[in-house]
Specification:
about 120 residues; 8-stranded mixed sheet; 2 helices; 8 strands; globular
């Protein structure tokens, strides 16, 4: 049976609030955003920086709920700057027939605050 990789989750256009070069790695994401986009702690995520074109992957860790935190840690901190606009995505592998009707979780937070728009 053929398997395909499709977008599972997307946080579209959030602002990097900090970077921490001395942390061991990952991206810290406000837990409210993770839940809304259906991203799990430890899940592999892909980051696209709209300001400089960088594309890279890392894993998600939970940040404080309601904080709006988007913090790149470790080596990833060298790829972005505070204030950059990023898109965070995760993918899933599934059977072709399931992928044809699958609907990803896509959220569009307020870019100024990184809070969910109600």
């Amino acid at each position: 049976m053929m398997q395909v990789q499709v977008v599972k989750s997307k946080i579209h256009r959030v602002t990097v609030t900090e970077s921490n070069l001395d942390y061991i790695g990952s991206i810290t994401i406000d837990r409210d955003l993770m839940d809304a986009a259906d991203i799990l702690p430890g899940e592999r995520v892909y980051i696209v920086d709209n300001n400089n074109g960088e594309r890279f992957d890392t894993y998600a860790i939970s940040g404080e709920r309601g904080s709006g935190m988007i913090c790149l840690n470790g080596a990833a901190a060298r790829k972005v700057q505070k204030g950059d606009i990023v898109i965070i995505m995760s993918y899933a592998i599934m059977p072709y027939d399931e992928a044809k009707t699958f609907k990803p979780s896509v959220i569009f937070p307020d870019t100024a605050t990184n809070k969910l728009v109600k």
